[in-house]
Amino acid sequence: MLMVEVIEKKRDGGILTTEEIQFFIKGYTRGEIPDYQASALLMAILLRGMAAHEIRDLTLAMAHSGESLDLKDVASLVVDKHSTGGVGDKVSLVSGPVAAAAGLPVGKMSGRGLGFSGGTLDKLESIPGFRVDLSVTEFKEQLREIGLVISGQSANLAPADGKLYALRDVTGTVPSLPLIVSSIMSKKIASGADAIVLDVKVGSGAFMKTLADAQVLAEKMVHIGQEVGREVTALISDMNQPLGCAVGNALEVCEALQTLQGGGPRDFREHCLVVAGEMLLLGGKVADAAAGKALAAETIASGRAWEKFRQMVAAQGGELRFVDEPELFPPARFVKEIHSTQAGYLARVQTAQIGMAVVGLGGGREKKSDTIDHAVGLEMLVEVGEQVEVGETLFIIHANDEEAQEIAVRRILGALHFSAEQVEPLPLFYQRIQ
Fold first, then answer.
1. How many angstroms separate the CA atoms of 182 and 193, rounded?
2. Residues in contact with 205: Cβ distance below 8 Å, sequence separation at least 6, in sequence order
């Protein structure tokens, strides 16, 4: 089999066989197929698309390109949750401990942030000492002992995805739906979870800008998961404004801690309860989503979710005093309230611009080699649909560089659009797909 023939076949709109897809993935993972040929095939896939069974074959080939984590010796059923990424999305820090506190083993291999989408690992590393580089043995031992672990992905799990993602990032092929589906699901299949809740974000701060695109992505991921024997549910949720108030690593951890103790912003708390309720439903702990949400709320009210988070932090080397006393997190040098110069209703937010403003402060990455400043970020104090008066605080900016702070302030103000007419609040969720 020749790689050029595989490229030409897809270029001309052909359907690739299972063998052709496996040939490509195995050859590229081993370094036998060069980047320039892999790039050509990725572009052909972007332009020509893939049939459902091609996406399945690509996903499985990527999932089996390295080790696969078998968790059956740890628990009969392990649940995971994955978000397609957003601004202020710290849901895993709450939903994971909540589900685990209700007796459902939660094993999550997570990623780092790139662009405007913050990464769960970066947030957790705000806690001094917290380790995200667990070995497979450590991952399984912690899952067995406390029922909750959030760690980085092993380099040996789905290595084809890591190589292909790096190539997609520099060849303009990131938006390809088949490549997005196979990237996400190959990692989830390889990491061993039996049940997966997918939080598919849609809107100005998400990769999927329209509800129709988000529905297609969700349906394809659910279908792939079910085809390979996983229980999968997708929730399509709003990302037309930041989730919660905090955007920025340590700030988001503090907001998650507030929520685990029964506080936190209303929208973020509700979002976490819905996602955790779905995890409990998939895990067989409850009969329906409403019962799952009620059980999730009870684990927070009882303090069990808070204690489960503390157990995870201690097990992974984090300093618990920062969890118990969040005021110990090092503050940014420059903290400034920004007030509204006009009255009206917040009508629209260019959410990706909010995320990129935090990246500009040092709270995110424009390229993988960038370092993270955990202290910087912002607290958004108004929501779409809320009435604002002149002089009211819109947001609080946290920065370690005054010039970067001023640039971020201008960018954020430019992302907020007001109306004299009343505006409806945004929904948290649009659809559930199973």
1. 16
2. 86, 87, 116, 239, 240, 241, 242, 349, 351, 352, 354, 355
Catalytic residue among 183, 191, 237, 340: 183
Question: Yes or no: is domain 3-49 CATH 1.20.970.10?
Answer: yes
CA 337 centroid distance within chain: 28
Catalytic residue among 82, 123, 140, 220: 82
Calpha distance 273→266 (Å, rounded) = 11
DSSP states of 306-369? HHHHHHHHHHTT--HHHHH-GGGSPPPSEEEEEE-SS-EEEEEE-HHHHHHHHIIIIIS-SSTT
Question: Of the residues 57, 89, 161, 194, which is catalytic?
Answer: 161
pTM score, whole prediction: 0.92
Structure tokens at 115: 């662009």
Q: Residues 92-100: what's their mean pLDDT?
A: 97
Distance of CA 331 to the CA centre of its chain: 25
304 tagged catalytic: no
**Which of 187, 269, 293, 365 is flagged as catalytic?**
187
Q: What is the pLDDT of residues 298-357, one digit of tens each?
A: 999 999 999 999 999 999 999 999 999 999 999 999 999 999 999 999 999 999 999 999
Domain locations in the chain as residue ranges:
3-49, 79-324, 333-419
CA atoms within 13 Å, Cβ hemisphere of 393? 10
> 79-324 architecture in CATH?
3-Layer(aba) Sandwich (3.40)
The secondary structure of residue 372, as a DSSP letter, is -
Helices H / strands E in the chain, number of each:
17, 13
- Closest to 88 measured CA to CA, from 311, 254, 292, 319: 254
DSSP state of 428: S
Q: Are 61 and 22 in contact (CB under 8 A)?
A: yes
Is 411 a catalytic site residue?
no
Q: Which fold has domain 333-419?
A: Aldehyde Oxidoreductase; domain 3 (3.90.1170)
Averaged over 53-80, what is the pLDDT?
A: 93
Decide if 348 is catalytic: no
Residue 183 annotated among the catalytic residues of the structure: yes
Catalytic, 285? Answer no
8 Å CB contact between 308 and 97: yes
